[in-house]
Here is the input.
Amino acid sequence: MLTVDFSRFPLAPGDRVLDLGCGAGRHAFECYRRGAQVVALDQNGEEIREVAKWFAAMEEAGEAPAGASATAMEGDALNLPFPDDSFDVVIISEVMEHIPDDKGVLAEMVRVLRPGGRIAVTVPRYGPEKVCWTLSDAYHEVEGGHIRIYRGDELLGKMREAGLEPYGTHHAHGLHSPYWWLKCAFGVDNDKALPVQAYHKLLVWDIMKKPLATRLAERALNPVIGKSFVVYATKPHLPQAAAAEPAAAEAGESAAPATPAAEPAAGTAAKARKAAPGTKAGAKAPAKSGAKPAAKRSSGAAK
Here is the structure.
């Protein structure tokens, strides 16, 4: 079940994608199927090993097109082991609500995203999340649990401060909010409560069958009680590069003399591509741990 809507966040074959705090890998798998060069990174070694196995199985089954690649690795979201401008696309889904230094994570994502690149950020939506916190302390007062609830304008403001330009938002998983309200009301660890079991069966049926009735219901519910808030943004091109063009035009310079000035930027991009992480499906490269707490699971069905 995807939170990022790839019809609003298009992906081209060959795009270099970082799924930061990938968890079980749902977005990484979709990007791999779409022909991207994917790096799935998380601090949870157990999950990364599972993601690597699935990447290998997908490669063996021919689920990814020629030219696609996939790497699963452990890493630290506050100290990403990649050069500047390494990726065309960064996805971080249901992660930032777990990390105390969310501004530091945004800064690292912006650093490794190339100018003109795109980023998708998803977090639990304020209203439905507030209900969960009110119904149950155990929902969020756990090691590695949610430490904040974002208001939409707060997240947008932090993204703009980090140098990103948001271009679209929406809400997702309207059918999942009532499930989590039931979980919080009956006990987040009490999966035997009949209302919880019944609703869980409904969600599984919806995910597997995608019937028209539930698709229409979720579309109607998303703006009202959608569990997740999704933001799409771009990293603008360097201001000095944009300013150099009119200056050159005023000076009457031709396109030929301007070429050498552009070479350093092109060289940097080329170096970043060469230094980008490995491309063998299922490979695992060790890195510093810390991308996403292992205990994070309170967004469960919405992940």
Summary: The radius of gyration is 21 Å. The CA atoms of residues 157 and 166 lie 9 Å apart. Confidence is low (pLDDT under 50) at residues 253-303.
